[in-house]
Amino acid sequence: MSSVSVSQDESFSVDEPLLPVSGGDLTVPLVDGGHTPYVNLDYAASAPCLRAVAARVEALLPYSASVHRGAGYASQVCTALFESAREDVRRFIGGRAGDSVVFTRNTTDAVNLLAHCLDHVDTGRPGQGAGGAVVFDVEHHANLLPWQRRPGFRCVPAAPSMAESLAALAAELRARPAALVAVTGASNVPGEVPPIAEIAELAHRHGARLFVDAAQLAPHRRIDMAADGIDYLAFSGHKLYAPFGAGALVGRPDWLDAAPGYLAGGGAVREVTVAGVDWADGPARHEAGTPNLPGVVALAAACRELSALPADRLRRHEERLRGELVEGLTALEGVRVHRIWTDVQDAVGVVTFSLPGHDPALVSACLAAEHGIGVRAGRFCAHPLLARLGVPEGAVRASIGVGSTAADVRRLVGALADYLRSGPRWTYVRRDGQWVPTPDERRLPGWVENIVGRQRVPVGAGTPCGH
Ligand code: PLP
């Protein structure tokens, strides 16, 4: 088994999780009939819930009642928690005092909301209407498609270096002004972190605002919107150690208040007649319908838990693990670790790699079935970027977080070394576009079978080719 060296000069250990997560002690079945502790290296897709967050949701549930609408005591409790969550979120990402915090379903929803608002922005430039958004071609589809289908959209091809990429962005903005530059805070493929403050300065110099897709940045780094000059920012609860279903869009209220409600319905209005509507100002304008209170409370709790960590502790934990992972992968002959930019050193705990000649979907199926390791294979909802990286067929992604340890990294590197040496030790067949082990006697947990009946594992798992 290939081993990974742990540097001794650090004053803390990465042998333990940084924070306890639900499912941190999960045991999973293997295809050979054995069981093993689960290695979750798929935090970038959806992170496990922090135990403290799960406890907060548990505490909330007895009070479940309407938000904003009820006179009852439980309803007041829910309203207080919902509204105070805005401040937890705003503080967590260093928002300005006047910034709006709008709760959404996730990052995708937040970007679509901002894009809807952009349709109604008057940039004051004659003949240009609302003005479009400019992106690099490295974005997750969530930060590409909402802009792509709007007028004025432009995509700047990223150059091999960030310095050249920024020069190309500046040239594009000089040639034709834009209302918004939309950029990822951290790539969901190689984890690289663009120089946000520099991009904000560049955008502002050319009369554009900056939106940061922080879906991958927020779980890994302290963010300071005000200091970095970020006008808008979005992130998702399910990647930030909270359960699924809640996210946030934070930013300057003028654009948000200039657009009609994103969703038309109750709670978003001041007055309605059969002929028309007077929309509410502030976050409520875009939050029609009953909100996801447990999701929002959980999101706020996760923000508090991460904020309470000593400065830089999260970053250092992940940098150590990422360093060991990259070192372990590059030591394996034939493994290629992907990068976008040659001159960007900073990266979060998201690492994408290829084993040339090996189908990434088969590698990930083998890691799950034979080793109990969860990674993701595919194109990571970033098709243009995977094409640019020269792997249009997809790759494998391992991602870490507060529940990850050096042992997790060692298990992955060891399993890949074994795979490269001997190939899969089980038989796999292609079924519905996925590799599945055969035979496979693994069962779902008893309580799940009681609900869904007896089903094969994987149950539509793996990665359909469009992802
Ligand atoms: N942006 C990035 C960089 C992502 O990695 C993801 C999800 O993987 C998204 C946006 C979309 O997040 P969500 O699915 O929570 O809307």
Structure, briefly:
This protein is α/β, with parallel strands linked by helices and 467 residues long. The protein is built from 14 helices and 19 strands.
Number of helices: 14
Q: Compute the CA-based radius of gyration.
A: 23 Å
The major pleated sheet works out as:
7 strands, mixed
Span of the ends, CA to CA: 32 Å
Strands in their spatial order, largest beta sheet: 4-10-9-8-7-5-6
Principal-axis shape equals: globular
Mean pLDDT: 93
- β-sheet strand percentage: 15-25%
User: Segments where pLDDT lies below 50 for 5+ residues?
Assistant: 1-9
Give me the secondary-structure category.
Answer: alpha/beta
What do these coordinates show?
This protein is an alpha/beta fold. 33% of the residues lie in helices and 16% in strands. The protein is built from 14 helices and 19 strands. The protein has helices at 51-60, 73-92, 107-118, 145-148, 162-175, 196-205, 225-228, 253-258, 293-307, 313-330, 360-371, 383-388, 406-422, 446-452; strands spanning 27-29, 35-37, 39-40, 100-104, 133-136, 154-156, 180-184, 209-213, 232-236, 247-251, 269-273, 276-279, 336-337, 350-354, 373-374, 376-378, 395-399, 428-431, 434-437. It has a seven-stranded mixed β-sheet with strand order 4-10-9-8-7-5-6, sandwiched between helices. Strand 5, helix 4 (145-148) and strand 6 form a beta-alpha-beta unit. The two termini are 32 Å apart. Pyridoxal-5'-phosphate is lined by residues 106-108, 140, 142-143, 184, 188, 213, 215-216, 236, 238. Pyridoxal-5'-phosphate binds at residues 106-108, 140, 142-143, 184, 188, 213, 215-216, 236, 238.
